[in-house]
Amino acid sequence: MTGLITRTLAGSNIPREARMDSLGRRQIFVDAVAKAPSEDDVLDLCRKHVLHGTPYLFAGREDDHYSFRKRIAHKFNISFHEVYITGSAKLGFSVLENKAFDLDSDVDVALVSQPLFDRLMESINTYQMSLREARRTVTERELAMYHSFLEYTAIGWLRPDKLPHSFDVKAMKDDWFDFFKSLSYGGSEVGDYKVAAGVFRQYRDLENYQYRGLLRLRSTQRVKAAS
Predict the structure, then answer these.
(1) Count of the separate structural domains present in the chain
(2) Residues spanned by the domain of 72
C-alpha cells in the first residue's frame, strides 16, 4: 500500500497514477492512514507525504518551487529549508475534508524559525500588556479571535491571521500581511492563489501538529469502519 501511495502522490513522475483525480488519491491516502498498524507508521506517512517532497502545486516546476521558497526565506532572514508548503497545495487535496486543491484553495506556507517566532511575539507581547492594563478595548468577537490565536501559539504555531483587527502594529502589517498579499493572485510563482502563512517555533512543532491531525483522522476512520 505504501508503495502505491508513493507512486500515486508523486504525480507526474508516474503517468498512469498521475491521471487519477485528486479525490481518488485522497482516498488512497486516507485508507493508508486508517490501516496504518502503528503510530510510528502514521508518523512515517506524515513525514513522507505531508512534509517531504515537491508540493502538488509545483509538480514538474522545481525551479519555481525553489524560487518561491527562496524569496520568503530572504524576506524574513531565515534558512531556505525552513520554508514549507502545507495543506492541500502540498498533497493536491485536503486530508480532513473531501475536497481537492482548486482555485478556491489557499496556498498555506509554514515558516519554521525560533528567531522569527520570537521577533513577531515581541509586538504581540506589547498588545497583551495593553489588554491586561485595560488600555485597549476589544469586542467580544475580537477577544474570541485572540483566544484562538493564543491557543495556537501555545502549541508553537504563531498565526497572524487569528489576530484581532484592533491589533494594528505597522511592523506586522508591512512585514507580514502586505508581503504575503504581494505573493498572492499572480504576484509570485504560485499563480492565481491566495498565499497564507504562519510561523512554527521549531520543526518538532510543525511535525507534531501534522502528525496529530493524521492520528485523529486514523481514529475517526476506524470508528466509521467499525460502525
Answers:
(1) 1
(2) 2-226
